[in-house]
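Write out structure tokens for Alpha/beta-hydrolase.
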Amino acid sequence: MLLHDKGLRLVAVLSFWSLLFSPLAAAAPSANASSTAATSGKSSGSSTPSTTAPASSSSSPSANATSSAASASSSASVPFPIAPPLKPGQLPNSFPSNPNVTDPNANFSSEWQDDFRVTLGLPNITFPLSGNFAGNLPNGPMLLHPDLSISQNPKSLTNMLDIFWIDQPVGSGYSTADSDGYAKDEDDVAADFLGFLTNLVKVFPSLSTRPLFLAGEDYAGVFIPYIAQALLAAPSPPVVLKKIAIGNGPFSGFSVGPHLGTVSILESFPQLIKFDQNVFQAFQSKSHLCDFDVNVTYPQENALPSFPPQPKLSSIWSTVSGKQAEVVGLLDRRAPPTAKRQSASVSNTLDPFYGCSLFDEMVDYAANFSFPWTPGTFDMYDVPNVVQPPVVIDGEVYFNSQQVRTGLHAPFSKNWTSVSAYPFGSTTNFCTAPFRCAPATFFNDLISSASAKGVEIVLYAGSNNAVANHHTLELLIQNATFGGTRGFTRKPATPWQDDNAQTAGVVHQERGLLYALFDNVGGLTPFSAPNAAYVFYRDFVVNANATGSLTTTSSNKPAVLGGEDAARADDQPRVASALTLAQSTVLAPPATLAAWESFLATAAPAGPTSAATSGAAAGARARGWGVLLGVLGVYMWAW
């Protein structure tokens, strides 16, 4: 973990990033907000310092403008791990984190603030930084490119926030542990995180009273609910939790959520089935046979059902590339799937092989029969992206260079890695209670506890994300009781805009819960849509933009600030007009798109609605969706 300037920056990049941030203080940071690091990563049960600390808060390009892209890639890196396991089957020991730590068992205090001040430059940075950063990408001040060059990010969240980027669980990034120190499960991750916060406020006492925002995307959407739950339950929490923000959060899992969302995915991306209406209706029929077609009302009159996990049957789960494969293999905790050669014929009945694994059946159909997809090319995090080979930005080359390690006082006992090889204690210690592990199982309790303590929750998703489909999130919200009512009372249908006056999606907020949908965006929102992401965090997370909230008209009728646009409501298909390839774009003919939209208008009947709703607040159509509460046996994630 790497602490940096403006007093409060813990910087490290994860595949599924988590971050803490607090609004910038009005005055310049005091000595209580200047430098050092602390972590709760366990080593023989004791908390230890992680590594590094900041430079002063003044801008200075001289310390940073030091090197070219080649310097980072040519610098030597250190093999991982240095300390081998002591016995067969034992996990590697990378503790202590830094040989320069004089007393790793010392108590934390404000005296630690100067111990790891960063004074050396970092490679490839040729622009001024108000401090030195490890590479907080893509929402920090540095943008790392495939050639390892670095450019300044004008949309950095550090323009408005003091931020810590956190290596977790133990073993990710530069964080270290001895053989017994790895987190065993998500509860362990939460306990470690609270330990880190406890140490952090010992080093920076002023942070104990400043409002804290806990935010992240992708698999952080699993960790953050556990962390927030632990903070809310703590009798004397070390910090003042103000708001939780989760983007593309994997609340519900690989083995339930994607299958519930298959029909909706096909509505928006008919290219997957070559605009074949018969194939679409076949998937509709399958969804009905699996009881995936549920109705939604505003407010939700009846609790929505739960669904059992489905097996992985498509080869997509074993052919995803690069770091995606690491996450699938290490975090999903499931065996490799069995591949099946699929027929071009899709029946209205359940396939004996796929059963209710509809997402897998859809992906295999596209790979075998729909141009431009081929086996292994489906991007479950950004469906219209068919670029092959995928663009990969491997931060390991940069972070493991000798110059970066030295400049950041980073550990030499292990290599920086975006995903821990042992995220839950071992390669065999899987979740022993899978129905317990998904955050959807305690979402009601979390939202109730947060509401009772005045902690606001912000949830957002990208419309192009298939595996963390936004409809699953919307149904999860509708099945939750908060503020004494189940779900939202009106359908999310209020447009919101970025600073260029471009509509970025829809937003809705009631009773301390805000939901937003980013149109035409997949996972990793700050990278995919930096302008919209920056405006969203500025206006709806850091500040309190009331767009999408409930109000009344002059005649005392219910209304929504910003109005409602039924055509942009969250349950309306975002039919893709183009697919992106490496050297070209595949456009769908306008007549084909028009015919598809006309077909959809009659393909799914309207669901029942509450008498209290009307217009844009009418009930959602029965579109092959389920909600994942009660019993869930999966982990949902996005890259």
